[in-house]
Amino acid sequence: QVQLVESGGGLVQAGGSLRLSCAASGRTFSNYAMGWFRQAPGKEREFVATISRFAGYTYYADSVKGRFTISRDNAKNTLFLQMNSLIPEDTAVYYCAASGIGRPVLSYEYAYWGQGTQVTVSS
After folding, report:
1. pLDDT tens-digit series, residues 38-62
2. Angle at 26 between CA 112 and CA 71, to 5 degrees
């Protein structure tokens, strides 16, 4: 089992930046590929980015590619999402998730989820 807690969300002006964190506890953090998802009001949960166990592989949704960077610090059991050049369409609750699959993208490939952190981008 792994427990995940997101933090770092908030209100930011369009064009600004936020850095989200996801603190993990439980089984060894490096056992898991990690991902970020987001869900806007009235919308389905959307894949944002994933990172493999030792960060050798990353993959991003087209909507955030070039603006967001996923990273991890296995020594600190922490996952990050650096979000730059934010736009109002990025407004959503952001969730981190852990997977036993090497390169997970789909929601069902992630077994563990955090509670989410709200990101609001104003224009």
Report:
1. 999 999 999 999 999 999 999 999 9
2. 65
Strands 58-60 and 117-122: unpaired
**Which residues are paired to 68 by β-bridges?**
83
- For residue 90, what are the contacts with CB-CB under 8 A and spacing of at least 6? 38, 64, 83, 119, 121
Tokens of 5: 């807690």
The CA distance from 11 to 121, in Å, is 6
For CA atoms 107, 109, 115, 117, the dihedral sign is negative
The residue type of 28 is T
- Say if CB 104 and CB 48 are below 8 A apart: no
pLDDT tens digits along 59-80: 999 999 999 999 999 999 999 9
